[in-house]
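Exercise 3.2. Students should predict the tertiary structure of the chain below and write it as structure tokens, then compare their answer with the key that follows.

Predict this chain's 3D structure.
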Amino acid sequence: MWISRSTYSSHHDRRSNIMSTTIPDETTAVETEQLAGPDAVAPAAGFIATIRKHGVFTQLFNVAGVNKGSAVCVSLSEITASTPGGALDTPFLGDAAMKVYNVVPLDGGQVRLRGEVAWGVDLNVRVMFIVS
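Answer key:
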């Protein structure tokens, strides 16, 4: 489990880059995409998803190739756009502590995650999965 407790300061508030999507509830699976190129991890497979959450949450993710016997590692980080109005593509260390509590690989290519974003409002969160 990784807990970040550092202070982030900047003239530009990266949290102002709001992602306008529907916030899935815990029973709706969030799609992931397989990493390729320099972001890929071998011999395991890497997947990412972006969600908006705050507080303790439980979320279901579709992660190709996962079954109940898979080894799955998960990390959480805040994410922002590298250019104003652009895609959310740049993880950064902000003021919010983010915690992974439980990772449950399920048959049928799904992972149930319980985590926490210690902040009062929803933040953009990159969820990264390493599956072996």
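Discussion points: The first strand starts at residue 29 and ends at 31. Strands lie at 29-31, 33-34, 45-53, 55-62, 72-81, 88-92, 97-106, 110-118, 123-131.
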